[in-house]
Design a protein that fits this description.
With 334 residues, this protein is mainly beta. The protein has 2 domains: 162 residues, no CATH class; 127 residues. 11% of the residues lie in helices and 41% in strands. The strands form 4 sheets. Strands 1, 2, 5, 6, 12, 14, 15, 17 and 18 form a 9-stranded mixed β-sheet that branches. A 4-stranded antiparallel β-sheet has the order 4-3-9-10, with no helix packed on it. It has a 3-stranded antiparallel β-sheet with strand order 11-13-16. The longest helix is centred in the last third of the chain and has 11 residues.
Amino acid sequence: MKPLSGLILLGTLLTAACAEDPVIQMQGFQSQPILYSIIETRDSAHFIRIGRLFAGNENPGLTSRIPDSIYFDSVKVKVTLTSMWGEKEEVPVEGRMVGNKDDGFFDSGDYMIYWFYKHISIGYYPEDGYMQFYSKILIEASCPGLPVARCSTDLVAPPKINSPKRAQQFVFLTPENPIRVQWYGGDWNEIAVNFTIWEEYPDSTVSRTFHIYKGNGLLFNVGTPQQYCELKVPYEMVVQILGQNLIYRTDIIRRYFGAFRIEVNTGNIDFDIFRQFIGGMNDFNFNPYDNIENGIGILSSKSTTIKDPVYLDYASRIYLANEPKLAKFRFIEY
């Protein structure tokens, strides 16, 4: 579990101090809440970050380090979940002070994080999928003197891996048969296939991990309840990766394949659109996409399914051990 993986500091428009000071504030400007939360549907602890948008004529390098310029003194947060059967449930929300963060452009003092505890889905086996209890979330944030900020989003189901299957311990990789990973995901998908090579030397044994990554734009079957996705890892690709990255050493005793690890990430439509713009977001250029009423920011949902460990079967290891392009690296087949 990565309970804090969704927490980042949103970019804000910074040019002055507090909203209550009419002399410093730009004419016609009104402070707004900035809300940021990415709900991981396989986690049970969920976090909400609420900041403050402000503007003015002062140097942002000074005013951004004043806590009441970038945070509200008090915020009341309400979270309502909608079950798969349409029933609404309000869940308790608590505040937690976070400190000891790294110094940066913004105030480095303590700040408030809001969080709630709820199992949104349960399950273990990637092939069988997960039982999901809730389909939608609504967050409402009441800040002093401002309209209530509201946002809602659909809760994405954890990706369901169909291949390799749950009980499958080995994958097959030959020139005629690529490794196939097949799964059902949401509107946004990415996959990482990692595999380890072990190297034995007279004085040590070391491991090297290689990564095969694919972002959105996979093979989709539009019209199904979830998107059908497939990634093929061809034999030639693995040979090329090894040939370009392994180091030739005369003192090596042997090399052999360790485990493969498959990680599938998926997100809902709000997460998909948010990701398209995130590369342009920094301290002074906020993301142009948001789904917050009476505020700015993003509420979205993502989920991750991991299948590991799986190993190359015996025939695949024989092929790679006898591959002429890899002969100098002294692979063995077990």
